[in-house]
Every structure is written in C-alpha cells, then in structure tokens.
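Predict structure. Chain length: 271.
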Amino acid sequence: MQVSETESAVQWVRLYVPQWPERPSIDLVNELLRRLGRWRSRLLANTFVRHHGATILQGPFAGMAYVSQATEGALIPRLIGSYESELHPYLERFSQDGVEVVIDVGCAEGYYAVGLARMLPNATVYAFDIDPAAREACAELAARNGVSDRVVVGAEFGPTSFEAFAGRNALVIMDTEGAEDDLLRPDLSPALAGMRLIVETHPTAPNRAGVTERVRERFEPTHRVTKVLQGPKSTPLPPWFDELGHLDHLLAVWEWRGAPTPWLVMEPKGA
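Prediction complete.
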C-alpha cells in the first residue's frame, strides 16, 4: 500500500526525534522544521493541482503544462509562478535579444528548458542532466508542451562543451549544485566570452567555498556581472489561499533553500 505524504512525514519524525541528545542542537531542530516545511509544501502542491491541474499559473512560463511531482526541489512555487522570480526581469530582457540557443546545464525535469522553448519560439534548447530520471522527465515535459523538436536532451556536459556553440547567440542557464566551479572555465572554452549566462552558485556545497567570487572573477574581463540575491516574494496567490494561515502563504513560495545560493547574471560587454 502506498504511504501518504503525511504518513511518511510522521514515520520520519518518529525515527528522527528519539535519536536526539538531551539538549538537541539548533541544527537538529532546524532540520526537523525544514522537513515538516517540505511536507506541508508538498501538501499545498497537491491542493494546487486539484484546483488548477499541473499548469503554471503566472510568470514568464504561465500556461506551461508542468508536473505534479518534481524530480528535485519545491514544486508549488513553480506552479504558482513565483519560483526564482528574481530572475524574471533578466529572462524577459534576454528574450528580446534574438537568442538562438539555450544551453541548460542541470535541467532537472525541464522547468527552464521547456519554459524557455515556449518563451523563445525561434530558439533551440539543449538540456543536460547527469540524472537519467531527470532527462526522461525533461523529454516527457517537452513532448507534453509540443516543443520536442526544439528541446535536445543530453547527459554529460564538460568545461569545453560550450565550444560546440561558438559564434551562436546563446543563453546559458546553469544549476549544478557546485559543479559550476568546474564547468565555467573561460580559459578552456573561449566561446563563453560571447554568451549570456544565468548561473546559480552554491558556496556552501562541499568544497565549494568562495565559488561565487571565483566565477565572478573569471568572467569580469569579458562580461558585466550582476550578483542577484534571493528576495521576498510578492507574487499573488490563488484565491483559495484566503482560507489558509499565513504560514501556508509563506510555504507556498518557499524554494527549500537551506543556505544562500546567489545567482550571477553575466552579459558580454560587447552586447
């Protein structure tokens, strides 16, 4: 018999809390809080799907058929349209720049790959992920949205792989949990000098301290670099949230980040 979200959360709490020492640390209590927050977030996502279906409600990808189970991360902010809203102005601006190619490294189930294929009808999106389940989900999402002919799904992507797109009007989207440190090497891939990039950095990932500044320094000779921090959300919530408490309003736009993951938005100086 399939275990419900609530039963699964209760089982975890029953196993987790008895292991605590007499004086549990802040980290232990924080992990409990985050786990319960993710549980409630998933319940809110299930309720959203019952009301609206798995369709993105607003934002730059409004109307996109999405998934009812994410391969990673919080689902309901994506469905509401508040997810990474800090990047929406840059996506809108870049969409006016005649982008021919999108290179999405760490595509997961295809939120950006498929969303940008819909947003940029003249662009081809190359989506990469080392997780086979993510690649399968991305391909399925592209088919569901009628953009399979412009979303090319691949696995491995290395620091010199950008050279295959040299000379193209390209936008790079990258979220690789710290591997941006290894992949973004302008010294190994000169084609990067002409590309626009939106990169989520992960300075608290293992052995990645200082990655945000290292990547910035590599690109400052050729790009205008803007560091973007996560901010408060002002995206309107569906009317049925009026019957829910304020904590649910907060959890609906919570993106499950355990620590700051600043973005670097980088535009070629000649653009």
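Summary: The longest helix spans residues 26-52.
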